[in-house]
Structure formats: structure tokens, C-alpha cells
Request: fold
Amino acid sequence: MILEDQIIKFIGFTPSAFMRSSIQEKITEIQKEAPCGCHFNIVFTKKDHLLKGVITLHSSTGRFIAVARGGRLDILTIKLMSQIRKKIDKWKTPKFHKERRRDIFLNNKNLTMEAV
Reply:
């Protein structure tokens, strides 16, 4: 996915270049699983030694949000990615089951029509 599809903000602190790169890699992995044409807004805020992260994924199919708090940016990022991945997986499940049932129905219908 294109980097323009991602907005990452850090408020109250500046992470290392390594940490920024690590977060970017994790977002790119998630984008491969997310609905086509989605856009990510990610905000990390530090206040009184406590970090808060919010990921909002906007897509034509809806909005997915993950929120987590913690003391370490790396662990916080993993929590956020896990939450957003679960929401994407939940979105995929009914869609894939519905498509699968439709495909089975169409295949069975074609077999019946050919047999007649």
C-alpha cells in the first residue's frame, strides 16, 4: 500500500527512527489484510509517562478503531495491531462465509443443470 494511506502522529514525544520504522512495517502488514482503499490514522500520545495509542482505519466498508494504553511504545503497538487485526478478521469472516455459500450454491446449480 502507499504511504499516503497512512497518517501517523506522535504527540508529547518523538520516537526513535528505529521505532518509527517498526511501526510503519506493522501498519504495512495490516494494510495487506484490510479492506481495499482503506486509510489509517494513528495517534500516539504521551502524558505523564503513560502512552496511549489510537488506530482508526477508514474504508468503504466501515470504520475500525483500536485503543490501547501502556508504558512502552513497542508493546503498545503490538496491542493495537492485535486489536485491529481481530476486527479485520471479524469483518472478513461473515463476508467469506457468505461468498463461499454462494459459490457452492452456484457450483451445485451448474452441476444440476448440466446433468439434466
